[in-house]
Amino acid sequence: MTTEQPDEQPTPEASLTSGVGATSRSGNARKQLLLRLDPAVHAALAKWAADDLRSVNAQIEVLLRRALIEAGRDPRPQPMRGRGRPPREE
Fold first, then answer.
1. From residue 12, how far is each of 29, 30, 33, 83 by CA, in Å?
2. How far apart are CA 58 and CA 66, in angstroms?
3. Residue 42, exposed/middle/buried by CB under 10 A (0-12, 13-18, 19+)?
C-alpha cells in the first residue's frame, strides 16, 4: 500500500527569493521585492518609465537610487584610501 503525498506548492516568500531572474546580467544577485502600489501611482510610474524608455522596475530603482544619494546614503561603495599611513593632520 502506497500513500501519496500531496504536491507541495512553494510559498510566495520562497518564490521571491529564488528562481528565474534572481541574478542580473553581471551575475550579481538581485533582491526581489513584492510591492503593492495604488493603481494611480502605478499608472503614473508606468507613463514616466515609458517616457524615459525604461521598465517600471528600472524606473523605481532609478528613483530609489536618486533618493538614497540625496539623503547621503549612496549605495555604491566608497573608494578606498591610498596605501600606507594617512597624512598627519596638524
1. 19, 17, 11, 47
2. 12
3. middle
Instruction: Output the pTM of the full model.
Output: 0.55
Instruction: List CB contacts of 29: < 8 A, sequence separation 6 or more.
Output: 22, 23
- Give residue 63's Cα distance to chain centre: 12
Helix (H, G, I), strand (E, B) or coil at 70: helix
Cβ contacts of 75 within 8 Å, gap of 6 or more: 65, 68
Amino acid letter for position 48: W
Q: Any idea of the CA torsion for 51, 60, 33, 23, to the nearest 10 degrees?
A: 80
- pLDDT digit string, tens, across residues 58-86: 999 999 999 999 998 888 877 777 777 77
